Amino acid sequence: MRDSPAASVSLQRRLVHRRSIDVEVYAREDGLWDLQAELRDVKTRDITLSERIRPAGVPVHDMLLIVTIDDVLDIVDARSHTLFSPYDTCGDHDDAYKRLIGLNLLRGFRAAVRQRLGGVLGCTHLTELTQVLPTAAIQGLAGLTKVAMPVTEHSAGMKRPPDSLRSHSTSRLASHSDSHGMGQSAGTDPCPAHPPEGVSVPSERPCGTDMPFQLNRCHALRLDAPAVAKFYPRWAQPSAPQRAKGTMPTSQTEDETP
Known about the structure:
This protein has about 260 residues and is of the alpha+beta class. Helices cover about 10% and strands about 20% of the residues.
């Protein structure tokens, strides 16, 4: 990781530890998807672990979690590998991560992981890796397939545009493809109420009635933000309710994609 102006400090400093978390997404020939997450801890000095010297630069932890999912983000297989660890028995957890099978990455995933793998039921660091899987899956599959994602009625007074259809159940799965924020060019509403100059919307392409998944989930894309007014005008709400200081807004999909 390189220093940047934002990270620069006036005092001298030296690197003593690096933790890296890397996630790769693979398309499989059987139509499924592999999420391969890796956590590595590396020291810049020699340390003693289990009465043995671990030289500088040799990982203290290097662990892999591989989860196979389908297009609705259900986990159909899971496995783990411990490459480096402080103790010889760190990997002796009897395929504990098979317990992820059957979970959905966007429906109560983190709570279910805590229940199935929390504490002594799993490995601290492999379980940590599960936390990045939901958003990694969404990013990895964006524009490549239709992803079924749970939606709920927008909370905190958020109203749909007047022409929106409201007949769907709050618990149903809505199919979001690239026309619903899952693969469109960066920051554009595929079906804007008033397309920006020079942008055409194909008449044969139906516009969705659900708000693009990424909206109202971060500061830049809150509904009263300039970026939403410019790129997603049909969803812009200049007087959108403001959250109280120190609180988090209620998300559309439980807690899986903060």
